Amino acid sequence: MVGETARAPRRDRVSVTAVRHAFGESFDLEPGYLNTAAMGVPPRRAAAVMAEEVTRWARGRCQPTDYDRDVATARAAFGRLVGVGADRVVLGASVSQLVGLIAANLPVGARVLVARNDFPSVRFPFLARRPDVIVDEVELDHVPDEVAGHDLVAVSVVQFGDGRIVDLEALRSAAEASGARVLLDATQALGWLPLRLDWADHVVGAGYKWLLAPRGPAWLTVHPDRWAELVPYAANWYAAEDPWQGVTGGSLQLAGDARRFDLSPVWMAHRGAAMTLPWLAGLDLSAVHRHCVGLANGFRAALDLPPADSAITTLDRPDAAERLAAHGVVASVRNGRTRLAFHLYNTEEDVALALAALRR
């Protein structure tokens, strides 16, 4: 069952859908949805805009240039969530594709440090694409201690499998002392964990989990000191200084900032991202953090487990996934453990439902 989502049949759950209000937005969310670490649920407003956009498309009313503002809006909001300007943000389609850009630019013989059992999209671009580099895998807690002697450290801020958080301050200090570059995957952190990662060489994140956007957009920040070092292996019309001039017969010239590494956008998905990312970037993320971690720690306390201080928690209990699914709780199984994720739209009702399922 590894990698599966545990849930009850949909026909048993449709009638209990209710509107929830959280941090200024409303959600059509079924009780017991604790699976944001796999897929986020959009606000009603964003879902309505996406439905309207599909209708416009079906009626032949969409044009490619319609989405330029959405792309720029989501790009800038991602930068604010990370703590950098929009000029540092690269547009991509997935974490693995963007990590692959960094992997492709490593010199032969480079040494890369990764965390054992980190998400495959962080590790696999180095392991599979670059057999001429050396990849060392260590336990997450040991990553800061092993930085010396490596050219690049690639690690998730929050581990997808169990919610553990890397010691960012220790990692930063170790990288500055040794001169190693740092690539952080913030996919499981952005949207609930307040972060300022302007010091990192690269920060990557996908939009369809905690950022509540449609699947399609992903972003990568590139420190200005690295712009000249990276070869834009996927150079395309959208990476030009003026993309629309290039496709109408004008001369092509790479953008002067991090846009030179862009992929062309998944247009409609960016319309949804332009709704959710600015809203999240404008919230008091300390309050969001307290809410999410408070629910997760409360759930753990009720099961006599110590606090984990993460929005993601796991259970090492063989029957947990089946019990939760039988009572309408949507969770996932990762690395043999049942994973639950508490986001800003979750409430004590979700905690109570999950606890009731486990206690019966």
Automatic annotation (TrEMBL):
Give one GO term, molecular function aspect. transaminase activity
According to its UniProt entry, this protein's organism is Longimycelium tulufanense
Signal sequence span is none
Q: What is this protein called?
A: Aminotransferase class V
Enumerate the UniProt keywords alphabetically.
Aminotransferase, Transferase
Q: Which domain of life is it from?
A: Bacteria
Q: What InterPro entries does the record tag this protein with?
A: PyrdxlP-dep_Trfase, PyrdxlP-dep_Trfase_major, PyrdxlP-dep_Trfase_small
